[in-house]
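quick one, 396 residues, struct below
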Amino acid sequence: MDFRLGEQDEAFRKEVQDFLTESLPPDWLEGIDRRHEELKEEVYQIGIDIRHKLAAKGWLGIGWPKEYGGQGAPLTRQMILEDEIAYRVVPGYDLYAMVLVGPLILQFGTEEQKMRFIPPMTRGTQRWSIGMSEPNAGSDLAALQTRAVDEGEYFVVSGQKTWQSGAHHADWCILYARSDFTAPKHRGISVFLVDLKSPGITMRRISQIGDLSILSEVFYDNVRVPKENLLGRIDGGWDVALASLGSERTFGILFVNDARREFEHLVKYCRETHVDGQPLGKDPIVRNRLAEMDIQLEVARNLSHRIRWMAIENMPMIATANEMKVLGSTLIRRVATLGMQILGQYGQLAEGSKWARLRGKMNCLYLGSLYTISEGGTTEVARNAIATIGLGLPRQ
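---
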């Protein structure tokens, strides 16, 4: 199987690479944690500038229809763009809008909703977040308890969402709420497009390991959502959720990009570092462990190609996307663990320490990998999806 791109796609990849080199600061550290955009004000401001530049080039929503502000380009162009942005850890690209919300509005939205919400995404003037998880409804979305009550011209929403990534910087949220408490739990859910500046919405940041704080709890206290902001049909939110989860699980490709990038930094370190006068890369245990990790990353790379081919062919991909999620999050953990073992006690030092190796990247990657396995749904839930949807096994 030949995974090489055509000449035009390769030319586009080169154009993207040159654009990113010109747009990022000269001292940009390739491989900083992708969450730094939410944590450091200077990185966030760089992201705003790059997002405006991406919009000016027509690269936000590059594959979306032209009538809504997209370019109508082949899906391969969007994949190339997202690959390069993920690998270089470029801030400013709103993955929630580009990968999840925009496609859902294009699939389930009314014409008025498409004209209202898609162009601001392609202009880079609106950021989105996802309101799915709740304190008692994490990976089990059907257990959610946030209420949406029909009050004539509005739905009145009350409840709490948690683990909402980037909500403090977002303008809008795609919110899942229970609209029928008498129906079976999968059938009484509806989806709403909610302005996060609406009266009745408050937020509280959630502290995370490693001083990360990209997540928020969001509280909805009798928030009035106009009827025209219902996405899809009333009580039809489970269909939207399934479409969303197929896309969200492809975030595993981003995990693989993270793992590949940090692995390459680690290999370079082993080539250049000497211990007791000998190159670290000559140590037989180090060599074998690096070679084994390279094999695993190559397997993941090929699965990434398969998912993209399935997306281009518009094939059902929920099972394969869950495979990608499990593999990607697992590889992040394995690369981080290997890096910590090779660096020894130096691996525990964070960025800023004069003794830190690889500028503290392995410390950051290792701490982040502790919750990567739960990000976007736990690996246990993903494995159940693989078993039931992919292998046809009975539900537990």
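The beta strands are 128-131, 147-150, 154-165, 172-178, 189-195, 201-206, 215-226, 230-231, 274-275, 278-279.
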